[in-house]
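Chain and conformation:
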Amino acid sequence: MTMTTPRCLKIFLSGWIVSISVAIGGAWAAEPLYAPLPPAPPIALSTSALEAATIFRAYAHKAADISPKFSSGVSVEDSLAVGSAYEPEQLTRGAIAYAALVALQSPTFVATFRAYAPYPEQRQKLADAILHNPRYAGEFPGASSAAGLIVATLAAEVGRMQTTGAAVKQSAYSVQHSAWSKTRVINPMQRLALAKSRSAALMTPEPADIESLKAIAASAGDPRAAEALDAHGQPVDGPYAPLATRALAVAALALLGEGGDDNAAAVQTLLSEPENGACLRMSKLNLYQCLAVAVPWYEDIFCLGEHALGETAQCIVKDIATPAQIQSAVTPTSSATTPVASSVPATGAR
C-alpha cells in the first residue's frame, strides 16, 4: 500500500524548509567564515634614514663629477672641498640607508615581508627578531634578490667615484707640464685645517631630494622606482657584508611598517654599524698626512685622487660585498657600460 503525504503537510514542510534556508543563509551573510585581514601599515622609512640616504647619494654623485682637468690652484682647492666634504660615520649611515632603498626594489623581498605586515603580533615579533639580529632578514625568501640589487647598484655607484679618483691621480702626473702645477700651495696649513673642518661637519640634505627618496620608498617594488635608482643586479647568496646585512634589515622593517618615524630610534641602531666609519676615518687620516707634506699643487691633486676619492670608494665597496659577490651580482649589461668598484686597493707613488 502506497502512503501519500497530505497536501497541507507538504505545504507546511516546504515553508519550514524555506524558512530554515533563509535563516541559515542570513546567518552566513551576517557572519562570514573568514574575517577580513586588518589593513597593513604603509611602507615607510624614518626621516632620519631618508636624510642619510640623500646625503650619501649627493656626495657620491658630486665626487664622481669632479673633473680631472685642472687649470689652476683654485680648481684644485675647489675639488678638494668637494672630495673631502663628508663626515665618516654620517656617510656610512647614508650608504646603509641608500642600500635599503635599493633592496626595496626586489618584488620577492617586498612580497615576503608585506605578507606579515597585516598581523600586529607577528609583525612586532619579526621586527624585534631583526633588531636583535640584523642577519635574520637575510634568511628570508627574496633576500638574495634584494642583496644582488644592493651589491650591483652600489658597486656601480661607488665605481664611478673610483674611476674619477684614478683619473684625478693620473692627472697629478700629466698636469706637471703646466708651470702653475709646480708652484707651492698657498697657505698649506690653512688648506689642511679646512679639509679637517669639512670632514667633521655634517652634511645637510636638500628637502626636494628627501621627498624624492621618500616617494621611492613608498613605491617599493614598482619598476619606476627601481628605474629612478638605477637598481639592477643578479641574486647573490650570503653571508653578506656588514653594509648589505644592515640594509636588508632596515628594508625589512620598512616593509613591515616598523621603519617609520615612530620607530626612528630602532632604525638608527641598524644604520650605526659597530665599526661605523672606521675605514673612512683611516682614509681621512691618510688624506691629512698627504696634504701635510704636499708642496706643489700637483701633489695636492695626487692626495685628492688617491685618498679623498680612491680610498673612500674602496672603504665603501669593502663593506658592500666580496669581490666574488660583486662579480655574481653585476649583470652583463651593467658590467659592460658602468664602472664597478673594485675591492683591490689602488697603488701608486707620488
